[in-house]
Amino acid sequence: MKQKAKSQRTHLARSAKKKATPESFYDKVYAVVKKIPIGKVTSYGRIAALLGTPRAARAVGYALNALEKSQVQSVPWQRVINGQGLISFRGDSRRAILQRKLLEAEKVKFDSNGSVDFEKYGWP
């Protein structure tokens, strides 16, 4: 019985070491977002796919929402929109308005429905 418990602890410790990485998922998201050129956009799902976690689009959104004020200038969060080409927001219309203004300042055009054309402005 003691041997089995020790074996389980050893297995858990090894698993934890394998899962531990030098940078967090959020840091990986920020690194990809920093690569998006001015005047281009991508989707939460595309970033998740680029990171090898195609079902983690929502987690990408959480990462961008968690940006600290000190990071906002260096991580161009405004260049990430939803898969339909629309700005996503949850109850904070001020942020959506700011995001659109920032994108328009980068010469990104919106159609009459508020959508961005991924064919023209999509990255990568």
TrEMBL record:
Residues 1-19 have a biased composition (Basic residues). Pfam families: DNA_binding_1 (PF01035). Residues 1-21 are annotated as: Disordered. Keywords: DNA damage, Methyltransferase, Transferase. It comes from the Bacteria. InterPro entries: ATL_DNA_repair, MethylDNA_cys_MeTrfase_DNA-bd, MethylDNA_cys_MeTrfase_DNAb, WH-like_DNA-bd_sf. GO terms for biological process: DNA repair; methylation. Residues 25-108 form the Methylated-DNA-[protein]-cysteine S-methyltransferase DNA binding domain. One of its GO terms (molecular function) is methyltransferase activity. This is Cysteine methyltransferase. It comes from Leptospira perolatii. The lineage of its organism: Bacteria, Pseudomonadati, Spirochaetota, Spirochaetia, Leptospirales.
